[in-house]
Amino acid sequence: MELSGLEKIEKLSKEIKNRIVEYDFIKVITHHDTDGLSSGTILTKTLFRANKTFQVKVVEHLSRNVIDKLVSKDNSLYIFADMGSGQIHDILEKEVDAIILDHHPPEIEEEFIDNIVQLNPHLYGFDGAKEITASGTCYFVAREFGYYDLSQMAIVGMIGDMQFPPMGLNKFIVNEAREKRYIKIFNDIIYNIYGVEIYKAMAYCTKPYIEDLNSEAKAEKFLLNLKIDPKKKDLSKEEYKKIISHLIFKYPEEAEKLIIERVLLRHKVRDAHLLSEMLNAVGRHGYFSIGIGIGLEDDECIRIGNKVLWDYKKALLSEIKRVELKSLRNIKYFEGRKGYIGIVAGILAKEKPVIGYYIEGDVAKFSARGNKKLVDRGLNLSKVMSIAKEFGGTGGGHNIASGAMVPKEKVKEFLERVDELIGEQLRASS
Questions:
Q1: Which domains does the chain have, with CATH numbers?
Q2: Alpha-carbon gap, residue 152 to 266, rounded angstroms
Q3: Cα–Cα distance between 193 and 274 in angstroms, integer?
Q4: Whole-prediction pTM value?
Q5: Alpha-helical runs (H) found in 145-215
Q6: Is 89 helix (H, G, I), strand (E, B) or coil?
Q7: Mean pLDDT value across residues 63-77
Q8: 430 pLDDT higher than 80
Q9: Residues 110-137: what's their mean pLDDT?
Q10: Using alpha carbons only, what angle is made at residue 389 by residues 428 and 397, rounded to the nearest 5 degrees?
Q11: Is the pLDDT score of 17 beyond 80?
Q12: b vs e for 159-182, b when ≥16 Cβ sit within 10 Å of the residue's Cβ?
């Protein structure tokens, strides 16, 4: 009888576990975003508990130059997390023993390629953009060691990669975490996750972003008008229903997003949404070791992470107000600052995809964001951004969120080509 997709993942995860056990030294290379840092945390805890000698390296992207710098022929086992499937040819050239734990569309749709073992949900019919994250893929390996508590970090990765509420394999992981009593889930208003005065939580909230509340003064005034104490740190159900009912007419879609499935963890940062935002903030600011430390529940890392988060939220709000969106036929775009373009693009993506970019040296780096409605109409930003190769760069990601790099002199030409391709995608479905 043929195995199901889940059974195939479990079978390969067991083989990967056996391979890890065989090696004396393991080098982990993971991505710097929330999902990558969650993956790094899962692998760190797994390898530590398995009494392995290892090191972890966090990177912004896995270019050929990065691979040349970090990967060399030795007796180590390399594990690539949240990356690798799209760079497998460059890894193959290094002739090293490697494991790839990724959820991006793979260049080679096989489990075993020379000395590489690739665990990628796309190989089994699962969509890595919405049904499982890289941290979820790492968790399937961790659970073969019996470390079911690491499902918590997989859930943090889901939230960071906009895959929550869960479906597909994500739902399997969440259900397993609930059954083993590692998490508690209930509906709540997003402002309650931060543990600060409600007017501050409201003013700096960008998921969702509500223009009428985008300063402390505006938020305080709004709450006082509703006879809600702005300085309280937790809203009752009656109070948050009152807030939503006053916003629903002007911001119907945004007001609906205020109610979330809140996840409480057995972690020093109790709220999964808060932990996800904290990892995102430190990752974007290059505090990679702090991100892993937060995942590992180090008190000083959590203290630093909380400060970085609030500094980041204030800077992000300022950036959103500063950004000037320009339009082509099918996209909107802007030039922004490093560490902010992706999240700003995601916040501003409404009726059209939004693409942000910044210049670093001789290279322009892009983040493209859509939304569920645009994806349902045929948008696939992964395919679109992969045309960066035609401009001497690299690109790829997911249908709803993707990135690229091209030489800085190619920015205008690249954006025009992206606009053209997105137009073709959206017209094809209409």
A1: 5-181 (3.90.1640.30), 192-319 (no CATH), 326-428 (3.10.310.40)
A2: 8
A3: 6
A4: 0.89
A5: 151-160, 169-179, 198-203
A6: helix
A7: 93
A8: no
A9: 97
A10: 65
A11: yes
A12: bbbbbbebebbbebbbebbeeeeb
